[in-house]
Amino acid sequence: MDQNYAAECCETTEVHEELLKKVRETLPCEEHLYDLAELFKVFGDSTRIRILFVLFEAEVCVCDLASALNMTQSAISHQLNILKRSKLVKCRREGKSIFYSLADSHVRTIVSQGMEHIEE
User: What is the pTM of this model?
Assistant: First the structure.
């Protein structure tokens, strides 16, 4: 591995107990850390990100999403199911159509902050 990208390490072993005490007091429980990691995995698929960007603009049905993203309704439905299970999107029925939208403003914030980070 290139030396420029290797993590630097301490030259001696010294544990800073005061710092570790603070860290242990504020570190979330393992269950919450696992759930957070699982949530970020959902954002690891570009199709799901594309769906979220469409939903930033409007509440749409599966047919609209499939057309906008040039994908099959089946493929869109599969991704929407994952987004719904992760509580990132919600849906409502109107007649024979099911309309999807962002679950709440947090979804927009997470994606927007991610975009800001990569554009820096």
Answer: 0.82
